[in-house]
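Sorry to interrupt, but I need a hand with the structure work. I would like you to pick a protein and set down its sequence and fold. Please put the record directly below this note.
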Amino acid sequence: MPVRPTVTRNRSRFLVAVVLPALAAGACTSQVNGTAGAPATSAAAAPVAQVSIPVGGTTDLNPKTPIVVRVAQGKLTKVTVTNAAKGNTVDGVLTVDGSSWTSSGELGYAATYNVVADAVGTDGKQVEQEATVKTLTPAAQAYPAMTPAPPSPGATFGVGQIIGVSFDQKITDRATVEKALTVTTNPPQQGSWHWIDDKTVHYRPPVYWQAGTTIKLDINLYGVNVGSGVYGKTDRSATYKIHDSWVAKADGQTDQMQIVHNGAVVGTMPISLGKDATPTHVGPHVISDKQQQVVMDSCTYGVCPPAPGAYKSTEYWAERISNDGEFVHENPNTVGQQGSTNVSHGCVNLSPENAQAFFGQFGLGDVVEVTNSGGPILPIYDTYGDWELNWADWQAGSALHGR
């Protein structure tokens, strides 16, 4: 956007040493011409250096746009830009030839900056220019939360991990937001964004990530109008590393769960899925959390005592596979049914030994595919229900699809 600085003072400043010789020369001339005693007058010539901050348009400066000070017929010697409210100065870079200065430090929203530029003209005269620059004021600022959160060093994720951005403001210009979100993968893989709701957008490839993939997410939304005068609050970035492929295939008909490592079946565990009244959702589930000990309370989804089916119990070696209360966890009480009957409240029940082994191998982003459970499809909005959609339907959820 163009800058609309408000000039508060434009002052040319000359050194006394520049002015006095001009007065002396005038007096000598008067005496030579025989007009001694006549007042000698001489107007100092205006300095040739012209210092300016580009102006144009009627809008305030976008804080993503740097402040640029230029000079003609001279060179800049010093430029100071100060936040009028906070008093801090903004870093900048002066060109080698002194023809311009460009701010490099970040500018803020709804801020006023005082600019003082000193220059010396080709005539040797010093010039100082002062001005104020104002930045735009957003209607609101949208903060981009990252899913998953930026990982700690050494952390890795499974092949089913979804990359997402959630905002604390409604997004009305989805296309602009998608253009400002960049996902880079190594090795390269196709991918697409899909809007889960008006605040949340997720990214995934057509099939699970390749084992060993590095994913870099760059959010470049600071200074970007995401619709209705709402601007991105900040830029962010994160890098995610995908580990080996671990996929568990839980079959509600055989009550067995195959453990598949990098495409090869390496084990099978007897399981018990959800009973008829509380069947486990079908489809790919992605592990979003794991805890050695979890209190499971039916009140969290509205079934509280004394209602029939209400429960509250502590379970161990628990890995969450949906926000609907579905976990893979130990349940010693159903060991007799594991491998033959589905009796849980929707979770995947394992024996203590198998639960510990599963917990030790499976982690965030790893996949549990459920089939033949008699349950509905896991909703796309339920944590990571993203894999329920085929690739064409997933792409259709992008604001840039078909453009």
Notes: Residues 16-32 form the longest helix (17 residues).
